[in-house]
Amino acid sequence: MRQRTNGGRVNGFALIEQIAALLAIGAASAVALPQLADLQTDAEGVALQHLAGAASTAMLLNQGGCLVTGHQAEPGRCRPVRDCADVGTLLHGGLPGGYAVQALSLLRGAEGHCRLVHPASGHAADFIGLGAGN
User: Fold this and answer.
1) 103: left (phi over 0), alpha (psi -120 to 50) or beta
2) pLDDT level of residue 50 (50, 70, 90 thresholds)
3) What does the pLDDT look like over 63-74, one tens digit per residue?
4) Phi, psi for residue 117 in degrees, rounded to 5
5) What is d(CA 59, CA 129) in angstroms, rounded to the nearest whole number?
6) What angle do CA 63, 105, 61 make, to 5 degrees?
7) Where do the domains of the chain lie?
8) Which pTM value belongs to this model?
């Protein structure tokens, strides 16, 4: 609504100007939204890769501790690992929710390829599994 002041100037915006501004904002949002969705997918993939790296590191550290103890289970040093899914016992706080490990049995001292999956996104990443402990 436009109002005239004492000097004859018009203040405010016309309805058509407001509609044009809303259409411009809507068009910009429609262009930006798919790009934001791609960022979410990329972030999930990167998080999965980092978790797989942490799983490999945890397996390696545990095997080192087991070699020191002669593969005797000892808290904080050597935990038995007979399956890829045992990596959850090696990670501080366990395996985060929403992730799963495909089961693969591991012999003591043997190396295997394990797979970490994020079912919600369909992403998967491999990590090194090492059998350890008695």
Assistant:
1) beta
2) very high
3) 999 999 998 998
4) -125, 150
5) 6
6) 15
7) 41-130
8) 0.69
